[in-house]
Design a protein that fits this description.
The chain is about 15% helix and about 35% strand. By secondary structure, it is α+β, with helices and mostly antiparallel strands. A hairpin with a 5-residue loop joins strand 4 (about 55-70) and strand 5 (about 75-80).
């Protein structure tokens, strides 16, 4: 099972601005996040995803394409330029990224998840806890 990571959607006002940022990189084939340190367990992340945290909730994921050395001793996390909605789950804020085992990762929304994007993350999380979405 692939290993995943979580990251705060820094500078995103809402889920839609995060989606717009990712999709704005579609022409390049990938979106890139810069990180100072390469994860120690990078080999385990083949086929994994970066799960985005917004408003203290995991709100979506972007599949990881890979990692690449960037200028000035940094590294790029190379992502597919799309946001896959997941069943929102509470997650405390943290700096940098954290590992997320596949068994602990929230499930993707099945079928048409268009309405999920319109809901505030906190409301979506509460509805998920109740099993309504």
């Amino acid at each position: 099972m692939p290993l995943n990571i979580t990251k705060i959607a820094f500078r995103s006002e809402n889920v839609e601005t995060l989606r717009a940022w990712l999709e704005s990189h579609a022409g390049k084939g990938e979106a890139r996040m810069t990180t100072r340190y390469l994860p120690k367990r990078v080999e385990e992340m083949a086929g994994g995803s970066l799960y985005w945290i917004h408003g203290h909730m995991i709100v979506g994921r972007s599949p990881i394409i890979g990692f690449q050395e960037a200028p000035e001793g940094r590294h790029w996390i190379r992502l597919e330029p799309r946001l896959i909605p997941v069943h929102a789950r509470p997650k405390r804020a943290h700096q940098g990224w954290r590992y997320l085992e596949e068994k602990d990762a929230p499930a993707d929304f099945g079928g048409d998840a268009e309405g999920a994007d319109a809901m505030p993350p906190a409301m979506l999380g509460e509805l998920s806890k109740l099993g309504l979405v």
